[in-house]
C-alpha cells in the first residue's frame, strides 16, 4: 500500500521520534507567536485556552498524514481544509496564502534544526526530501507558490521571516499562556530550547538571548538517547495529563483520529 511519505524518507524518522517532534514544536511555538496572522488562532479561543493540548493535537494530525496510506492522508488534509473554510466563513475573511505558507515553512525549518540539534547534520538530499514532503501537503491544502527543493525554499523562508513576523499583544499573551500551562520550570526549559532552534530574526524579536543550561546538556543528552534512557526524562518534562500522548508519539503507525478538530 502506497503511503503519503515513502518508508525510506528522512521525514518519517524525524516525525516518528518523540523528542525531535517535541523540539520541532518548541521552536515553532516561538515563531508562531510572532506571526502576523496568529490572531486567527484566537478566533476560536482554543489555542490560548489549551496551548499544550493544541500542540499534541497538531502532532497527531501531522503523524497521521505522514505515516498513513496516501488516500487516507489526503482525505485527512481535505477535512482540515473544510474546517478552515468554516472558520473563514464564521469570521468573514480568508486566511491568506502567505499565512498558510508561514506555518508550513515553520514545520520544514524546525524539522531540520531539531533533527540536526539532537542527532546529526542532514544532507542536501535529505533537506530536499523534507521540503518535498511538506510541499505535497501544501499542494493538497491548496497553498500556492511553494518551492519544491531546499535551496529555493530557504530563499523564500528567509524573505518571509522579514515580512511575516512582529511582536504583538498576541505574542505576549501566548507566551503568558505557555508559562501558565507549563509552569515555571518547564517554561524555562521551553525558552532555552527555543534559543537553540530559532532563527536570528525570531530571537531578536522575542529578545530570547543566548542559550543557557540546555545547551550544556545536549552532548550528554545525545549520549543517553542511544540507551533509550531519555524517554523517562522526556516524560518528566511533560505535564502529567499529556504523558499518554507522549508515549504514543513514538509509534510510526499512529491510530485513526477520533475526529479532526479545529484551531
UniProtKB/TrEMBL annotation:
Pfam families: MPAB_Lcp_cat. Residues 50-209 form the ER-bound oxygenase mpaB/mpaB'/Rubber oxygenase catalytic domain. InterPro entries: MPAB/Lcp_cat_dom. This is DUF2236 domain-containing protein. It comes from Chitinophaga filiformis (Myxococcus filiformis).
Amino acid at each position: 500500500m502506497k503511503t503519503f511519505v515513502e518508508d525510506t524518507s528522512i521525514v518519517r524518522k524525524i516525525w516518528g521520534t518523540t523528542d525531535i517532534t517535541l523540539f520541532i514544536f518548541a521552536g515553532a511555538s516561538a515563531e508562531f507567536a510572532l506571526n502576523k496572522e496568529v490572531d486567527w488562532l484566537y478566533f476560536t479561543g482554543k489555542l490560548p485556552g489549551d496551548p499544550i493540548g493544541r500542540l499534541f493535537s497538531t502532532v497527531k494530525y501531522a503523524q497521521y498524514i505522514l505515516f498513513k496510506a496516501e488516500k487516507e492522508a489526503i482525505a485527512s488534509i481535505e477535512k482540515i481544509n473544510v474546517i478552515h473554510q468554516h472558520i473563514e466563513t464564521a469570521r468573514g475573511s480568508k486566511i491568506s496564502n502567505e499565512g498558510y505558507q508561514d506555518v508550513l515553512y515553520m514545520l520544514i525549518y524546525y524539522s531540520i534544526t531539531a533533527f540536526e540539534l539532537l542527532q546529526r547534520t542532514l544532507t542536501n538530499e535529505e533537506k530536499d526530501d523534507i521540503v518535498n514532503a511538506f510541499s505535497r501537503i501544501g499542494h493538497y491544502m491548496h497553498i500556492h507558490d511553494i518551492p519544491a527543493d531546499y535551496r529555493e525554499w530557504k530563499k523564500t523562508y528567509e524573505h518571509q521571516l522579514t515580512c511575516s513576523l512582529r511582536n504583538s499583544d498576541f505574542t505576549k499573551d501566548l507566551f503568558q499562556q505557555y508559562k501558565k500551562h507549563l509552569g515555571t520550570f518547564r517554561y524555562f526549559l521551553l525558552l532555552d530550547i527555543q534559543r537553540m532552534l530559532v532563527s536570528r530574526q525570531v530571537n531578536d524579536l522575542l529578545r530570547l538571548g543566548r542559550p543557557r543550561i540546555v545547551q550544556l546538556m545536549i552532548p550528554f543528552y545525545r549520549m543517553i538517547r542511544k540507551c533509550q534512557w531519555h524517554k523517562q526524562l522526556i516524560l518528566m518534562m511533560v505535564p502529567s495529563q499529556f504523558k499518554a500522548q507522549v508515549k504514543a508519539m513514538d509509534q510510526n503507525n499512529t491510530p485513526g483520529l477520533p475526529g479532526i478538530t479545529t484551531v
